[in-house]
Design brief:
Blueprint: H1 3-8, E1 10-12, E2 18-20, E3 23-25, H2 31-43, E4 48-50, H3 58-72, E5 80-85, H4 92-106, E6 111-116, H5 124-136, E7 140-146, H6 150-159, E8 166-170, H7 178-187, E9 190-194, H8 199-203, H9 206-215, H10 219-229, E10 233-234, H11 241-247, H12 257-264
Parallel strand pairs: 3-4, 4-5, 5-6, 6-7, 7-8, 8-9, 9-10
Antiparallel strand pairs: 1-2
């Protein structure tokens, strides 16, 4: 399989929607860089783009989508756009209202996958019920969650009607979330990886470097191939055209069972962010804010 064929590969979500298995993420990217990287990614064959209101770059992503489609002659339905409900917008009525601002910033009429960014304690059940309504209204093609541990996910399943299509988690060789991956697979929920490369600790791991040398690939390419073979959707971030191409050049080799096991053994269950670090559900302890950039339009007050 070549690079472009791999980028066409999809998985079928539990509601029948087909989602690309490899895409572009834009966390910690300003609007100007997001516009350029999204356009470059579309031109280079990507179909899945992942953003969030909290990232402060939905406007730039929307502009990149428009320019990428114009450059390639594709249509909106050739792309799969994911964004996420802002923590500060959680709650039933505020969730229903928040989508309109996101659609305006992205300059889109619908979202392919709408994720609850974090399970805000005391709100995530009502929030999900509102997302179910948005789904039934056809404003989003699929709904999912992000950063849900098994306890909160089971609570969600016990009190709502629609099983999430996706759970987007931190997933990489250093943090493989084996229990959550197993739970998701059992429940028919597709795991998607944020931070799929695992940062410096994974990228400098000598065992992965030895495996990369064996296949004549970069460490990043081996990690993304590992994620792929684990059945996890990946959205590596890059603002460089060359790296965008390299990150999708993972379809002309396959890791052996032994090499997969070697990478699995690297797991340290080491999360970079998790519940003890997030106190946004406790009023006053952490301000819930949208990332602001020097090039941010003043349109984040819905």
């Amino acid at each position: 399989m070549n690079r472009l064929e791999g980028l066409e590969e999809t998985t079928t979500l539990n509601n029948g929607v087909n989602m690309p298995r490899l895409g572009l993420g834009v966390w910690k990217t300003d609007n100007t860089s997001a516009k350029e990287s999204v356009k470059d990614a579309i031109v280079k064959g990507y179909h899945l783009i992942d953003t969030a209101k909290q990232y402060g770059n939905e406007t730039g992503v929307g502009e990149g989508i428009k320019e990428g489609l114009a450059a390639t002659g594709q249509n909106r339905n050739d792309l799969f756009i994911t964004t996420k409900l802002f923590n500060g917008d959680q709650g039933y009525e505020s969730t229903l209202n928040a989508l309109e601002g996101t659609l305006k910033r992205l300059d889109l009429t619908y979202i392919d996958l709408y994720l609850m960014h974090w399970p805000v304690d005391g709100k995530y059940i009502d929030t999900w019920k509102a997302m179910e309504k948005l789904y039934r209204q056809g404003k989003v093609r699929a709904i999912g969650i992000s950063n849900f541990d098994n306890e909160r996910l089971q609570d969600l399943l016990d009190h709502t009607d629609i099983v999430p299509a996706v759970n987007q988690m931190e997933f990489n060789p250093i943090n493989q979330e084996k229990d959550i991956l197993e739970f998701n697979n059992h429940a028919g929920i597709q795991m998607e990886a944020w931070s799929p490369l695992g940062g410096g600790e994974a990228l400098s791991n000598p065992q992965i470097k030895t495996i990369a040398d064996k296949y004549k690939k970069s460490v990043a390419q081996v990690i993304l191939r590992f994620d792929w073979q684990k059945g996890v959707i990946t959205i590596p971030k890059s603002s460089h055209e060359e790296r965008i191409i390299q990150n999708s050049d993972i379809f002309d080799f396959k890791l052996s069972d032994d090499d997969m096991k070697a990478i699995e053994a690297i797991d340290k269950e080491k999360r970079s962010l998790w519940y003890p670090d997030f106190t946004w559900h406790t009023t006053g302890e952490m301000q819930d804010t949208v990332d602001k950039w020097d090039d941010s339009p003043a349109n984040y007050k819905d």
